[in-house]
Amino acid sequence: MNEYIKEISEKIDSKKEYYAKISNRIWEFAEPRFQEYKSSELLQRSLKEEGFSVRSNLAREETAFIAEYGSGKPVIGFLGEFDALPGLSQKADTTERIPAEPTQNLKCESESKTEQKQGPAYVNDCGHGCGHQLIGTGTLASVIALKDFMKEHNLKGTIRYYGCPAEENAGGKAFLVRDGYFNDCDLALCWHPEQGRRACYGSTKANFRVFFTFHGTPAHASMCPELGRSALDAVELMDVGVNYMREHMIDEARIHYAITDTGGDAPNVVQSRAQVLYAIRAPKITQVKELYNRVCNIAKGAALMTETTVEIRQVAAYSNLISNKILADHMNTYLEKLGPITYTEQEYTYAQNFQRALSDQDKKQLPTIARDYFGPKASEAMKTPIFEPIAYQNLYSDLKYSTDVGDVSWIVPTVHLNIPTFAAGTALHSWQAVAQGKSSIAHKGMLYAAKIMALTALDFLQNPELATEARKELTETLDGETYPNPLPKDLKPEIW
Hints:
By secondary structure, the protein is an alpha/beta fold. It has helices at residues 2-13, 16-29, 37-49, 132-153, 167-170, 172-178, 231-245, 285-306, 325-338, 345-356, 360-374, 378-381, 405-409, 431-435, 440-462, 465-478, and strands at residues 53-58, 61-71, 75-81, 103-104, 123-124, 157-164, 187-194, 198-200, 202-203, 206-215, 254-261, 273-282, 309-318, 397-398, 414-420. The longest helix has 23 residues, at 440-462.
């Protein structure tokens, strides 16, 4: 066993500069949902060079792909992500809020000027505030090391890298699941930057994303206001109605919104069009559907009050995560065997500088975060500016976020690994997370995750009966439930 750990670790560490370069390049591309043209191409090219066969443009997602090596059972999927978040452009390694220099259609090094695929001509204000550049590259490192091991040791089985676009806001994996790309997969492994080392055993929140577009009648707001019917009034009334609804929904639910179109900037014109985007979350997809119906009724009521009309358009859906304890236990075993990540004094200083740059509120939250992750080890964890212990394992955790990994987990035994890649207390979806995305701390966490995933997969390649046990656990957990497939039947992936 220990010789396998040493061999996999050496394979990954021997190419650490190569993987750091790829991760940094994707960080620089910082492409938003369904527009990850350069990031997807770079990963595909790297996998082709390593002998993987690649299929691309899947489930009507231009940037989705599957890279495959080997043959036969078990089929082990590795989930790679690479999309960035809008509005989080940030200069690297800087503890002040300084947006990076704007870029437009940044070129992938592998392409000539004539070959370069032209995406939308947006000036990029995006940033990797959730570490997806690390996820995509760490997963790449994992499958390459595993491929080399399989080749050298004549191991049978199939490993797949799933290039998964648009995890943020659009749930790209749900489209891949709906179109059958996971149907023959025996298990799925993935990882995500977080505060501590752990194999998650819990459930994420199910989530709908829905646009409500109101249409009214324009008019001069002073000369003939009686002729106007304000779409913006309808949006505001809807938001008020939903806020009142919060008192009468389960505590675990979350509803948040962004007004994406106010109808213009002229107050003397009655706004004839306005739009709001809602995220509706709850522990179970059935609970989200109930809340969705109530929110739709509030929108219709706002339209009735303002004599406007409302167009309701669901654009994404995420199912809740079904954790697999067999997979999580194997991962946690390797977290113990591999031990903590080793950091230098310079890296500790780097992390301390970012901790000092946190807001007072974030600093006050640090002890609470430590207790949530480490339980009785919280005091020990807070002695260093990067959380190092293995996270305390509750029987089953209520994870507050949403992820489209949940959709995969309903049909494939799935495990979700967390590894720290930044200073403790750094919030995901923040400029501080973006700023630390090219650091050596981030790269060490990325390669550590690659090792844990490869070693876990190796257990199942060497003992295929474990995949059968994991499948049995999933069947028992579902207890007769089937994948809810929350996407509307006619919904296609789209840029919005």
